[in-house]
Amino acid sequence: MTSNVQSLLAPTSATRPGIKPRHVAFAVANLLFVFQGLVGYVGVLLGLLPQHPTDDVAFLCVVLAYHGPFFAFWDAPGESRSRVTKARTFINWWLLTAITAVLFWELPWYYLEDDILRRAIPMDRFHQGLEYLWIFWGYGIADNRFLNGNETVLSVEFCSIHTGLVLIPTYFAMQRDKVWAYWIGAFGMAGVCYVTVVYVISDWYLGWTHISPRPYDFWVKFLLTQTPYVFYGGFAALCAMYVATELAIEQRLHALGRASVAKDS
Predict the structure, then answer these.
(1) To the nearest whole number, what is the mean pLDDT of the chain?
(2) SS3 string of 51-99?
(3) How many CA atoms lie within 13 A of 264 on its CB side?
(4) Is the pLDDT of residue 8 over 60?
(5) pLDDT band at residue 185, thresholds of 50, 70 and 90?
(6) Average pLDDT, stretch 155-163?
(7) What is the dihedral sign for C-alpha 30, 35, 40, 45?
(8) Domain spans of the chain?
């Protein structure tokens, strides 16, 4: 028994093994994350780099790395992957990006934030002797809601952290073609998209009163680090629903085919 669904789930043509453009984009995105996280953070901790403008460079690296999943749809010359294959590659890439942000950004901040508020450390400037908070100050200077106990930020981060933690086992279940994992992933990514929209609109409604007037802070540190969760996160949720539907159809057809063979025998 054959179906159009099966042809969508399998590559329609084979290409010679080798490095493809999307592999290069994936490597560059990872290098950008490593640069800002390892080189930037460790450099500041050791006093080898100044806190500013290293923070500007670090957030530019993050913004560029966020766009890496877009290249999942780029076929190499002579390659023709199915829509489902491209969608799955995009979902995997975006989930890994979002999970990395949860583990190395939201989760540490969630525990450090209470300590910062309790010690009444102001967020309008960097502080010598507290370089381990450097990257959080780098963002907090652009968006002063971030570490000043703002209820909107606390709510958004709470939702993002717990959704991200749920997406970790979901990601591994997706690799085993579990239909339910794609549906959970779709709802999770849609939820992150929604709370990010709320996060941005809540301050737009107030006239950007909590956002730094410095253009780089507004456009790069604030807006361009949030919008990928809206556009890519929302699109990844749609892709997850599409893949889940196609997988469910394929698995049903396989089950019917096996039942037919068993009956004939």
Answers:
(1) 83
(2) HHHHHHHHHHHHHHHHCHHHHHHCCCCCCCCCHHHHHHHHHHHHHHHHH
(3) 6
(4) no
(5) very high
(6) 79
(7) positive
(8) 4-264
